[in-house]
Specification:
Elements lengths: L5 H26 L4 H13 L2 H26 L7 H18 L5 H30 L3 H23 L41 H18 L1 H11 L1 H6 L4 H17 L1 H10 L10 H11 L4 H24 L5 H16 L1 H19 L1
Length: about 375
């Protein structure tokens, strides 16, 4: 064995990274004079100890699944899409336009149309940086970051000057019609006795799970997915094999932008039931950490999204029940990102050497 097994790369190393991140977080909590054991108990109880907590955890996780998948698809094509925040913002605009356009007779029709609107607007916002990268050589990281700010400004203009109801002072659209209201998990037969009506988790969770499956099919079971992965591994080899770099960059970024845009189904249509400023709330950036921690695999993205959903909901409960500031959760998130991303090799190399040495001794 000249390298460690795949299960260690996909599960063991992320687990070690998490343990280190939480251990350092415990030291930070001790440093501010609080009890880390009590903090963990509050977070676990608040995020996982009740149907109410699970409802919010799954709501946040749904957002992160979409943005994590968006980053993962682009990453397989060697494109680092930092623009999930802006693409999700424009996806919300697409959802609002669709939902306000008609008096929808049933939520299923509204969901299909809103999904298409979110995907189209998100993909359109990713298309410009993708074209600049493919044709002009503009760095995708720089252009997508810039488009995050442009998207936020565009949404601000649309809400204040175009879509705000007459006489309203709130920079937000009107409430969506009743036919566009998505069922919460409480309204689904079989789950009504588990989840309370007050939680925002809704049927978009199942759309996100379907997206995980479709991304897996795309990347590992289709010709296009093979071409995306081949280009991501070696551009020169892909060119030699007749794969068009322009096509791969454009297609992968369009899919990535569409996935990020579809996050708006959950937070705009499913939870707020109208479009408001800052509806994305940083989920586009969290998607980067989710994809890194999930090793850009849909199953890993799903698990990492649940973890970050736990951190979000657990952090909110922590701020309510203890004197630990809410900002500490941002510190924990940053530590998770640090160890799963920037310092990944700090854990990976010694673990890999350990497996190789063990295999040689066994021989």
């Amino acid at each position: 064995m000249d390298k460690m097994p795949k299960w260690a790369d996909l599960a063991l190393i992320p687990a070690i990274n998490l343990i280190i991140a939480f251990a350092i977080s415990a030291l930070v909590i001790l440093a501010i004079g609080e009890d880390p054991v009590r903090a963990i108990q509050v977070m676990v109880s608040g995020a996982l100890g009740s149907a109410y907590g699970w409802g919010y955890t799954l709501y946040y996780a749904t957002n992160f699944i979409f943005t994590g998948l968006a980053v993962a698809v682009a990453f397989h094509a060697s494109q680092f899409n930092i623009g999930g925040e802006g693409q999700a913002t424009l996806g919300g605009l697409g959802v609002a336009i669709v939902c306000l356009a008609l008096p929808w007779p049933h939520w299923t029709l509204a969901l299909l149309a809103a999904s298409l609107g979110a995907a189209l607007f998100g993909a359109a916002w990713a298309a410009i940086p993708a074209w600049l990268q493919a044709r002009r050589g503009s760095h995708i990281v720089i252009t997508t970051i810039m488009f995050n700010f442009i998207g936020a400004s565009l949404l601000n203009y649309m809400l204040v000057n175009v879509m705000r109801p007459v006489g309203s002072m709130d920079p937000a659209t009107a409430r969506f019609p009743a036919g566009a209201k998505l069922p919460s998990l409480h309204d689904i037969p079989g789950l009504g006795g588990v989840f309370s009506r007050s939680v925002p988790a809704n049927v978009t969770l199942f759309v996100a799970l379907a997206a995980c499956w479709l991304v897996w099919l795309l990347i590992w079971r289709t010709r296009l997915g093979y071409q995306i992965r081949a280009y991501g591994k070696s551009e020169s080899a892909a060119r030699y094999a007749g794969i068009s770099p322009f096509r791969i960059i454009m297609v992968s970024m369009l899919i990535s932008g569409a996935l990020a845009g579809m996050m708006a189904i959950n937070n705009v249509m499913g939870e707020a039931e109208r479009l408001v400023l800052n509806a994305v709330e940083g989920a586009g950036f969290i998607g980067i950490a989710v994809a890194l921690m999930g090793r850009n695999h849909p199953v890993g993205v799903l698990l990492a999204a649940i973890l970050f959903g736990f951190l979000y909901q657990g952090g909110a409960e922590l701020a309510l029940e203890t004197s630990i500031p809410r900002e500490l959760i941002t510190v924990i998130q940053a530590l998770v990102i640090l160890f799963t991303g920037a310092l990944d090799n700090m854990v990976r190399r010694p673990v890999e050497r350990l497996f190789i040495a063990t295999a040689k001794e066994a021989k």
